[in-house]
Amino acid sequence: MRAVVLIHLEQHEAALTDCDRALTINPKDKQAWLFKGVALNYLGRYEQCYASYDRALGIERRSFVYRLVQVWKGIFGVGRSDTAAITSST
């Protein structure tokens, strides 16, 4: 997925656009939802980030993507209550 490369190049808006295009074609693309969440996280859009992670998780809970999202959530915070603390402190 091209969005992964764009994220590594720190082109987060472009990665987000790429994920949105992929989701237009296939709204059940769990990788697109995952990397959309990653891009949103880097853009500081935490509520939308968690919503994208939740969509990826809801598609298939036994998949590799499910485990990857759980790890990603662990790296950047333990839950939505932390999001409010992050956004209110900035």
Number of helices: 6
SS content category = mainly alpha
Low-confidence stretches: 81-90
Shape: globular
Percent strand equals: under 5%
Q: Which helices and strands appear, and what pairs or packs with what?
A:
Elements: H1 2-8, H2 12-25, H3 30-42, H4 46-59, H5 64-76, H6 80-89
Describe the structure.
It is globular, with a radius of gyration of 12 Å. It has 6 helices and no strands. The chain has 90 residues and is an all-alpha fold. It is 79% helix and 0% strand.
Short note summarizing the structure:
This protein is an all-alpha fold and 90 residues long. The chain has 6 helices and no strands. The longest helix is centred in the N-terminal third of the chain and has 14 residues, at 12-25.
What features would you highlight for this structure?
90 residues; mainly alpha; single chain; 0% strand; disordered C terminus
